[in-house]
Amino acid sequence: VMMTQSPATLSVSPGERATLSCRPSQSISINLAWYQQKPGQAPRLLIYGASTRATGIPARFSGSGSGTEFTLTISSLQSEDFAIYYCQQYNYWPLTFGGGTKVEIK
Amino acid sequence: EVQLVESGGGLVKPGESLRLSCAVSGFTFSTYSMNWVRQAPGKGLEWVSSISTIGSNVYYADSVKGRFTISRDNAKNLLFLQMDSLRAEDTAMYYCARSVVTAWLLDSWGQGTLVTVSS
Q: B68 with B48: CB under 8 angstroms?
């Protein structure tokens, strides 16, 4: 399953809303996870089951979608949210990741 | 506290072998599936291999099938990745990551170990 993320780069001002897209090449039900990766760090699980926040993840992060269209929304960007975000499907083997969306400061 | 600590990375020549380890603590290792994910310098994430709780089921990316072997030692809380016939394109940071039994999402990650394949 190919995972297409858009945009590749998103320039957002602190306090603004960010909307990231992930589109699998075929339906994956809700078996989708979102990860955040900051420079020099390992990825961190944000969202699983398309919309369930992982433990300790702030409420400003929300996920939605099913099938072939998914969205990660960050409601009000904080300085610590500038990072690269990856989606991953776990409905089929092989597990596959999207190419990532870099959220940068505008 | 859940901890995953990878080791065993380094610089090797094409065709050589390397064995990565991931030592875990803070959770009951034998009740979780485990994975290896890699990231080439400046690139995105690539799933490499996964193993079920008792090692009865293993999965590999096509890019490493036949060259890499995943295994685990539940008595010692260790995950392994034996990498043979290494190629330049295997150069990457290798992360071990935990999955729950019911879904292959990656809920905890180690900090990674760097593998460089170069002549």
A: yes
- Pick from B50, B107, B111: which is nearest to A54 by CB? B107
**Taken in order A99, B92, B4, B98, is the CA torsion positive or negative?**
positive
How far is residue B119's CA from residue B49's CA, in Å, rounded to a whole number?
A: 26
Q: What is the pLDDT of residue B100?
A: 85
B47:A97 CB<8 A = yes
Which tens digits make up the pLDDT trace of A16-50?
999 999 999 999 999 999 999 999 999 999 999 99
Cα dihedral sign for A89, A95, A101, A102? Answer: positive
Judged by CB atoms closer than 8 Å, whether chains meet at B47 and A96 is answered as yes
From chain B, the residues in CB contact with A93 under 8 A are 59
